[in-house]
Amino acid sequence: RQAFAAVVSDQPTQAQAWWGLGLVESEREHIRAARRLLAQALAHDPLLSKASAELAAAETLAGDTRAASQLLDELLAREPANYVALTARGIGQLQTGQAREALANFMKAGLIEPRYARAWLYSGIAFYQLGERQRAVEAFARAAELDPRDPAPHQIESVVHEDALQ
User: What is the pLDDT of residue 89?
Assistant: First the structure.
């Protein structure tokens, strides 16, 4: 955060730095701040795909399906292999009970970028919703391995074990 803020301070029109600040806030699910910072990135570079994808992910996490769908439709039309956008679309599908469709998007994102922890985390949730507990636990383990500082894979996995009375 400090490094990105330093760049923004020196170069206020640097879209990549605004995206970096927005990414940090989005990953922490600080949606208001993420929206504001990612909007700044897009104001400086409207075609910065990673800012559009991360803004769509933030909107999805916030439950604004209309805004997220519009961003995702535009972005995936331009870049069908954008793994962040595919993951955001999958999260939205999970929220509407479409676990199989969501899993397909997470798997596609995982093929494009196998080190993207968010896709693994949410694929674990999709597996769990589909009744595949072992595959869910494996996906959570992979997410935890890829992002060792993120407590979410461990927390969600504990719910899976608790649900099974393990």
Answer: 95
Residue 143 · residue 120 · CB < 8 Å: yes
Q: And the tokens for 150?
A: 């993120």
Q: Quickly list H helices, 45-151.
A: 49-62, 65-78, 83-95, 99-112, 117-129, 133-146
Instruction: Using alpha carbons, select from 56, 134, 127, 64 the residue that is nearest to residue 94.
Output: 127
Structure tokens at 7: 């760049």
Q: Give the DSSP H or E segment for 96.
A: none
Q: What is the mean pLDDT of the chain?
A: 94
Q: Is 152 helix (H, G, I), strand (E, B) or coil?
A: helix
Q: Average pLDDT of 94-109?
A: 96
Determine the Cα–Cα distance for residues 127 and 136; give it in Å rounded to an integer. Answer: 5
CA distances from 70 to 18, 64, 100 (A): 22, 10, 22
pLDDT of the residue at 63: 85
Tell me the CA distances in angstroms from 129 to 47, 107, 114, 145, one per residue in order.
35, 15, 22, 22
Q: Which of 107, 115, 102 is CA-nearest to residue 142?
A: 115
110 and 120 Cβ atoms separated by less than 8 Å:
yes
